[in-house]
Amino acid sequence: MAEAFDFDEVINRREVPALKTHRMVLGEDGMDLFPGGVADMDFRAPQPVLDAMTQRLAHGVFGYETVPDGLLPALTGWMKDRHGWNIVPDHILRAPNVLNSLSMAANLFTNPGDGIIVQPPVFFDFADIIAENGRCLVENPLVLSAGKYDMDFEGLEACAADPRTKMLFLCNPHNPVGRVWSKEDLARLGAICRQHGVFVVADEIHGDITFSGHAYTPFATVSEADAINSITCLSPAKSFNIAACCGAFTIVPDEGRRNAFKAENSRLTVNKNNAFASVAMEAAYRQGGPWLDAAVSYIEGNLALVLARLNDIPEVTLITPEGTFLLWLDFRALGLAQDDLTRFLRTEAGWAITRGIAFGEAGKGFGRLNIACQRARLDQALDGLDAAISKR
Ligand SMILES: Cc1ncc(COP(=O)(O)O)c(C=O)c1O
Q: What is the pLDDT of residues 331-346, one digit of tens each?
């Protein structure tokens, strides 16, 4: 019998200091806005994860620990079964979170002033990390054509050929435009980077969340040469809604770079075990599969709802996603400047979503909507948008 999961259950996220509901969701008149911003889910984590954490809590002693023996095999088993990637256990390093690994990679494998390529519109923290590490942002914008974003390989070649460019931050699948990059795309990107000595940092945190007909290809599986010329940042945080547990993995196939990472982890003392993160991650990878499949299919149902409702709102266009629970909406037909658009969405539609401009200039006039929420709440939010646009 199929297990039942209740993604319609409303959970008050204000009971904890959730970023999504603490930030930006009170309207100017104190009204509750629809919290469609921060990239996490409004769903309770899988029951096996909750059980594992409860059991760990009941033990009652939280002295220093080492990483549990079962954790890395749980990760390698998951990646092999789900995504066909045989990760060599020795290549895995624990990390506190994915962004920490990106920042460390920039710091370890490039010099101040070196260029790091990003492909906007892309997750805004990439640009922050590059700036905060004193590196230069090199933008190779994606190209939007016929409602779909693609990589600009000629632009990429030009960026990579600049001798000051040393690294590329890859977002696979791509937040916010929802592309699940094909093996061909990744192979082309990998070849350009190798030819020009550009090291690839693959952020694959959204890899588990892909829609029917689209499969995530880990960059490191494209070829052995690409694996060696890259690190991959993985985490169950998005897939199982456990971001606040703070746990991630960095896969570093090249031995020299792995040793550099280990030394830096040691210098910064970010190599301690978090008891709750470890048991949560192990349980998620071992027993969370059915929950994840059900969650993705619920999110696909939410996507279908948005598509159907937007039929009646021709001023707003959805860039159809292939994965992630983040929708990239094109509001440019409304003809509003970015600040006016934000104000309109907040005060008229009751929406608190992420401004497109946050993802780079290419995001002007767009917005990112998170649909990993209860369907009834999403429907209500769409009522708000519909009414606000009809009233204009
Ligand atoms: C592409 C991408 N990378 C990284 C993160 C954050 O990961 P972490 O919390 O593990 O640093 C996010 C969260 O939104 C994301 O979308």
A: 999 999 999 999 999 9
